[in-house]
Amino acid sequence: MRPVCSTHAVPERHGCTSHAWLALESVGSTRTYAINQEIYGKDERAQEWLCIVTGAARKCLVLDDGRRRIVDFLLPHDFFGFGTRNAHHFSVEAVVQPTLVRSYPRDHVEQVAESHLDLQQTMQEITFEALSRAHARVLILGRVTAAQKVLAFLVEMSVRSFSVDRSIVTLPMARDDIADYLAISAETVSRALSELKRTRAITLIGIRQIKIADRHLH
Amino acid sequence: MRPVCSTHAVPERHGCTSHAWLALESVGSTRTYAINQEIYGKDERAQEWLCIVTGAARKCLVLDDGRRRIVDFLLPHDFFGFGTRNAHHFSVEAVVQPTLVRSYPRDHVEQVAESHLDLQQTMQEITFEALSRAHARVLILGRVTAAQKVLAFLVEMSVRSFSVDRSIVTLPMARDDIADYLAISAETVSRALSELKRTRAITLIGIRQIKIADRHLH
DNA sequence: CGTAGTCTTGAGTATCCTCAACGAGGGTGG
DNA sequence: CCACCCTCGTTGAGGATACTCAAGACTACG
Fold first, then answer.
1. pLDDT per residue over B39-77, tens digit each?
2. Cβ neighbours of residue B155 under 8 Å, at least 6 residues apart?
3. Coil, helix or strand for A92?
4. How far apart are the first and last CA of chain A?
5. Distance from CA of A135 to the nearest CA of B (A)
6. CA angle B161, B162, B168 (to 5 degrees)
7. CA distance A206 to chain B (A)
8. Do B189 and B181 form a contact (C-beta atoms < 8 A)?
9. Chain B within 8 Å of A132 (Cβ-Cβ)?
10. Predicted TM-score (pTM) above 0.85
11. I need a labelling partner for B147 at 20 to 30 A (CA). Which of B2, B46, B86, B90 fits?
12. How far apart are CA A28 and CA A22, in angstroms?
């Protein structure tokens, strides 16, 4: 299964319509992925900056004991694939059907950055955002009960989804994925959702569409 | 209690003795902190890039429920204080007596970066390192048992400590700090250490000096 | 409409948390 | 110099929470 390619579907980066950005866009290309399809494998060296246009993806790895851990969910406007020359190697897989990903070859990025100083600044901001996500994640994992973790997760997704109504979240991923993201079992995720429903903190609109009533657990 | 200031004690950054780096060093200053002394508070806007020269610090915050969470331990060569214009605000406190911190005012950094292109690249690398730490941390928190978390923590510290003998770790922080870092109770940290000792995975040389025999839990 | 994947719920077990007591080490003052 | 205190670390007992195994309900898609 090969990703479908095109040159349209550019991610609009908020407040960044600079000349440098446009120059970068000219070297980008867009690919389409099916559900569970690998966007890049754990042993591939990151040769490009990638950005989700539509859909969602999970950045994950499999531990020695066979458990899968998801270190980040990637939503539209999120960049990834950079800075992967470190110890841990992750693979990225599409979570929904279809997921559109825009790709910017690393050498082209650096080439453009040489003549456009503000682009490097933008890249720095993008890295800061990824760092910010990771820190927020550490805090979510640090919560005590499963219900708190799940609620914090829902709030995080609602904030990151850029939807009109922030109290309604549409989850692109399965319960399994949430479980591996929060480092709890899928059954516990389900039970936590039921508990949150019972205590009126959330309401289930659809199976993956949730209305958040209380953002803080009382 | 005021931090003591001086202009010596420059952090040697491995493989980065470039002209840009030297230019940056000229605008840096070094401060000394006592144990538990605040290096910067959670509401201060980060106006400088900071780097641990000697000692250690914890990046933490206090949750609504009164629990303290440590999102990162900062060791010599680690940079921090940047990218803090995001949602969560952390305070940084010295963990050992004394801790030396080198400070580079943000506007000076940006000024130097304008004339030294490679400096921005270095800053990018520094941010990647922080991101890498955060991801490693998510994986540690995702481990199942307390013993696994504690062992993974010890291994992380041994890798980051740059000591000659990597099998021996000298922990600069108390059990409480480890507990808040791993999101488990201090008693559980103690019990996990005892268990690891019993199963011969580690040996306690001193109260805060540990020899790691098995890096992977069998 | 059937099948496979996803989600929920239940029962029993293992792990961790809380409360509590105790021991070891370091600093201070008599 | 020693007694005292305070912090830090360890260990125990009981209760709460999450995990595993298992079965059943729901959903999506062919």
1. 988 877 767 899 999 999 999 999 888 899 999 999 999
2. B212, B215
3. strand
4. 48
5. 7
6. 65
7. 29
8. no
9. yes
10. yes
11. B90
12. 10
